[in-house]
Amino acid sequence: MKALDTLRISNNMLSVIDVEGGYPFTYIPRIRELGLAHCNLTKIPVALKYLNEMRYLDLSNNRIDGVMPSWIWVKWKDSISRLDLSNNMFASLENSPSIVHTHNLYYLNLSSNKLHGTVPIPLTSMSGALLDYSNNSFSSIMPDFGRYLPNNTIYLDLSRNKLSGHIPRSICTQQDLEILDLSHNNFSGMVPSCLMQGISRLNTLKLRENHFSGMLPENIGEGCMLETIDLSTNRIQGKIPISLSNCQGLQLLDVGNNQIVGSFPSWLDVLPHLRVLVLRSSQLTGTIKDIKGDCTIKNYFASLQILDLASNNFSGNLPKGWFNELKAMMENVSDEGQVLGHDANSSSGFYQDTVTITFKGSDLSFTKILSTFKAIDLSNNSFDGPLPESIGRLVSLRGLNMSYNNFTGQIPYQYGNLSQLESMDLSRNQITGEIPQELLMLTSLEWLNLSYNNLYGRIPQGNQFSTFSDSSFEGNAGLCGVQLSKHCDNQSLIAPSEVAPPESDSLWQDKLSVILLFAFVGLGFGVGFALSFLLRLYCRMEGWICKQA
């Protein structure tokens, strides 16, 4: 097959062995597209450097280590357009070049290796470049990094490296940049305003888990095309700028684990496509109110599917109608749903949005967010008043966490309508009453925590409840059932408020004194009456005897 042009055998159960002499590539000298991903390679086959016009090379997901040879950039400078060396163990680039000269390269994936030093920049004349350097140990980038990037770079991923300092403002010169991921680094300073104002096509901005500080950029223009903003786990201060409402295509906003202040930004309801809102672990305060009191509002967060307000300082009652407009959580769908993310172009694959929330008692990072996943987390605040019955209308809800608040009243029986619920945490509140039997209808429930409330009565038996341990119900002195190994008698089924409180010793002493007093008074009255009666009887008898005489 001397004329063979393309050979792709990736992702099978094959191993490729580099035999001395270059077999088999010496026999297919015209190969231009070669896919050897997942082929158990431990080194780059030597014979590849004798192939003159390589356009496509995929050696990803092997076990290749050592130095990435420089002949790749020299030999294929005029031909290579797509190069994927990701998920190997390369430690460095030979000669540590800051710039690699290529003419036609538009896709370069060096992610998930052990590369260190300065991030290399390919000089190419191709437009629409996609560069992925994530999951390495790169520690520096050129000061004018953005100016050397290929024209019309669409996708740039530098996440999970060791980069520090300020983001080079030259990156804002990339007017066609659509996806920028700098998360999990050590960047500091303020978030450049140009990233939210000046790059007209940017739709994904991920800066989470860095050291950014200061205020968020103000005056976001009406031309904002951002669909994903993830600034979680930084040191950002101040309020969420109201000009963010100009980003009408926004689907995900995560500014959690910062020092965000102010009240709940109800004005975000003007964003018609907002699906994920994470404000957890901030310094937000006050009550949550509808703009029109408890009345429902048309399209109020109608697309929202994940709401995380945990660990703030919110207080007060939740409005009665606040959950009635969460239309997306009311849709009872059974299909797998779509994945939230973005297509840069057909060659880059699909870039998936991510989110971290508390689910089933643990902080979980979802690297794939399905449109069918719905969750609400209001935990660790100071909400009080009754649990809203309207939550029972959110039939597609998968996760509900309202723990560590001051909720009172009973668990609404309407929560039994949450047929897709997998995780429910109502622990550490002041909830009273019995556990509704309707919760037995929650056949998808895998994790339940009702501990440390004022619940009483028999724990429902059957279905999912038979799988929960005593930790789900501990701290409720009035509960009984097999889960707690506590037998339910008649006394156990009485509400604590209906049980007569135990009487103290002093009260018994007071009662005993009263009883003795009445006893002695009664005894004295009885003796006196008896003596009076006998004396009177004696007098009468004496008078009768005198008359007879």
How would you portray this structure in words?
The chain is of the alpha/beta class and 549 residues long. The protein has 2 domains: 175 residues, Leucine-rich repeat, LRR (right-handed beta-alpha superhelix), CATH 3.80.10.10; 246 residues, Ribonuclease Inhibitor (Leucine-rich repeat, LRR (right-handed beta-alpha superhelix), Alpha-Beta Horseshoe). The protein is built from 4 helices and 39 strands. It has a 17-stranded parallel β-sheet, with no helix packed on it. It has a 9-stranded parallel β-sheet with strand order 14-16-18-20-22-24-26-32-34, with no helix packed on it. It has a 3-stranded parallel β-sheet with strand order 36-38-39, with no helix packed on it. β29 and β30 form a beta hairpin. The C terminus is likely disordered.
Sequence stretches where pLDDT stays below 50 over 5 or more residues: 499-508, 514-521, 527-531, 537-549
- CATH architecture of the largest domain, by name, is Alpha-Beta Horseshoe
Radius of gyration of CA atoms, rounded to a whole number? 37 Å
Mean pLDDT, nearest integer?
86
Classify the helix fraction into a percent range.
Answer: 10-25%
User: Rough shape?
Assistant: elongated
Beta strand count: 39
The CATH superfamily of the largest domain turns out to be: Ribonuclease Inhibitor
Count of structural domains: 2
Percent of residues in β-strands: 15-25%
Q: What's the CATH class label of the largest domain?
A: Alpha Beta
The tally of helices reads: 4
Subcellular location: Cell membrane; Endomembrane system; Membrane
InterPro entries: Leu-rich_rpt, Leu-rich_rpt_typical-subtyp, LRR_dom_sf
Family: Belongs to the RLP family.
GO cellular component, one term: plasma membrane
